[in-house]
Amino acid sequence: MDVSALDEASLAGSAVNIGEIMQAIAEHKGCGTSGGSGKASCGSQAGQGELPTEIWEKVKNHPCYSEEAHHHYARMHVAVAPACNIQCNYCNRKYDCANESRPGVVSEKLTPEQAVKKVLAVASTIPQMTVLGIAGPGDPLANPKKTFMTFELVARAAPDIKLCLSTNGLMLPDHVDTIARFKIDHVTITINMVDPEIGAKIYPWIFYNHKRYTGLEAAKILNDRQLQGLEMLTERGILCKINSVMIPGINDQHLVEVNKAVKSRGAFLHNIMPLISAPEHGTVFGLNGQRGPTAQELKALQDVCKGAMNMMRHCRQCRADAVGLLGEDRSAEFTTEKVMAMDVKYDLEMRKAYQAKVEEKRVAKVAAEQEELAKLASEMSGIKLLVAVATKGSGLINEHFGHAKEFQVYELSTTGAKLVGHRRVDQYCRGGYGEEESLATIIRAINDCHAVFVAKIGGCPKSNLLKAGIEPVDQYAHEFIEKSAIAWFKSYLERVQTGEIQYVDRGEAAIRQSALISAA
Amino acid sequence: MPFKIIASQCTSCSACEQECPNVAISEKGGTSVIDPKKCTECIGHFEEPQCVAVCPVDNTCVIDTSLPRY
């Protein structure tokens, strides 16, 4: 166990939680710290905080690098990179389904020219789309010509759009200079291990230097190349996010080591994601019954690592052709057929004007949160709990319970409200009637939450939620998430103090594995 | 005997197309197809046939026994 984890563990057990007091002091200084060990993580939380201005400028409009930005700004992926150079036991790219949403899945691949047309079409329709990523469906750097050709064309046609890519890292060292030259200032590397013994259980083979390598040898080459690539990128000031798939029994404990290894090499953000595994995916892990982690297991691991560096909690593990805010997928609106038929005019001024309005809302949201937080200052309770929020963006509680395709999960304590995850669900309401089966699934998905915040909710799901011990809250409809959650938490603490209610620990929650039943 | 690609198993990822030293592979009808006249089984180029080594689906790039050896 590392020192910071020890600190947290010993603090958690003591009667007076110094970590929380330290956090409360830090909050009053205007900086949101989420780590108990004094590490500032303002950057991926709210506002600039202690982040150097040059880094803040890079991440502030990037939904994947800034939790705060992801409520307001959208991203898109273009599927120009079908080939891959490694085999992962959690991946099967033959699978495509419009209702599936996970990495490696794509409905159609694009040429660089088609991709640019699509980028311009999306940029005109969704002016808050600020980021273009290439993430597959294979590996962008196993398709360097198509990948860099796309970046070049987009940079010329839409120079205000940020470029980023996501790679397995095998070919990364060979392309770092090109990445720097194309001004790609965000690179994500998927690193699941720093120990070849563990790697051999995740990667059956790699293709490198015209040869297929297997077993320990494959895992060793892959890991060396990943870490070398990471070092080369951070030396050049390129921001790196590390994605790690949490595979219970294989690398779950080991990801703490991975976290240390990537932090020491200058990674900016660590994104530990749950394994998505079901037999119908046809992956090795899906077929051999390897399970994914529960929501609690995932959060516990993320919490251990957060003492060391910024953790991403808002990743939606999106498709290689996703379009829109992270929580939504509008790719069906932008099929090649539809895009080619569109008359696209790229209007930079319109985009700038729209984004300026987004910024105004964003400032108002952070200010409202700070104001509400000040009211919590005198509270000394040690209670920490989770709440689920139905939102369709802009940081507002603006989705009906029955229409939600996901719930964002916030952890509430006297230090404030922090996004710690999200749960995908099937829509409860379909064409005017509620589905009892999907209600049970939704309750399982948010079973660890004390309350669910919605814009509106019907009588039947309301009473079922209450029966399950989850309080439906609709009094903050169309208000800011954090501000409302803090206000509700304050009244919750008061109700506990007066004895009106009793604080009880909630149970486990399930992370959705299979495709959504209803069409997006 | 050149290699051929079993169309029903091909994911059309084009990884083989990029690796083939003979530029013998192209996409036709939604899958990758090897031109048997150009395939050399990678003899003289590499230790192992590149399409076989890079293909994500095992037993998809196979020897076409109906044709004479290279």
Automatic annotation (TrEMBL), chain A:
SUPFAM superfamilies assigned: Nitrogenase accessory factor-like, Radical SAM enzymes
Radical SAM core domain mapped to chain residues: 70-321
Keywords: 4Fe-4S, Iron, Iron-sulfur, Lyase, Metal-binding, Nitrogen fixation, S-adenosyl-L-methionine
Pfam family, one: Nitro_FeMo-Co
Entry annotated with the keyword Disulfide bond: no
Any one GO MF annotation of this record: lyase activity
Cofactor(s) essential for the protein: [4Fe-4S] cluster
InterPro entries with a match to the protein in the record: Aldolase_TIM, Di-Nase_FeMo-co_biosynth, DiNase_FeMo-co_biosyn_sf, MoaA_NifB_PqqE_Fe-S-bd_CS, Nase_CF_NifB, NifB_C, rSAM, rSAM_sf
Pathway(s) it belongs to: Cofactor biosynthesis; Fe-Mo cofactor biosynthesis
Chain's role: Involved in the biosynthesis of the iron-molybdenum cofactor (FeMo-co or M-cluster) found in the dinitrogenase enzyme of the nitrogenase complex in nitrogen-fixing microorganisms. NifB catalyzes the crucial step of radical SAM-dependent carbide insertion that occurs concomitant with the insertion of a 9th sulfur and the rearrangement/coupling of two [4Fe-4S] clusters into a [8Fe-9S-C] cluster, the precursor to the M-cluster.
Family according to the record: Belongs to the radical SAM superfamily. NifB family.
Protein name: FeMo cofactor biosynthesis protein NifB
Organism per entry: Bradyrhizobium archetypum
UniProtKB/TrEMBL annotation, chain B:
InterPro entries from the UniProt entry: 4Fe4S_Fe-S-bd (IPR017896), 4Fe4S_Fe_S_CS (IPR017900)
Sequence ranges assigned to domain 4Fe-4S ferredoxin-type in this UniProt record: 1-30
Species of the source: Bradyrhizobium archetypum
GO molecular function term, any single one: 4 iron, 4 sulfur cluster binding
Keyword Translocase included in the entry's annotation: no
Gene3D superfamilies according to UniProt: 3.30.70.20
Name recorded for this polypeptide: 4Fe-4S binding protein
Needed co-factor(s): [4Fe-4S] cluster
TM region positions: none
PROSITE patterns in UniProt: 4FE4S_FER_1, 4FE4S_FER_2
Keyword annotations from UniProtKB, A to Z: 4Fe-4S, Electron transport, Iron, Iron-sulfur, Metal-binding, Transport
Higher taxonomy: Bacteria, Pseudomonadati, Pseudomonadota, Alphaproteobacteria, Hyphomicrobiales
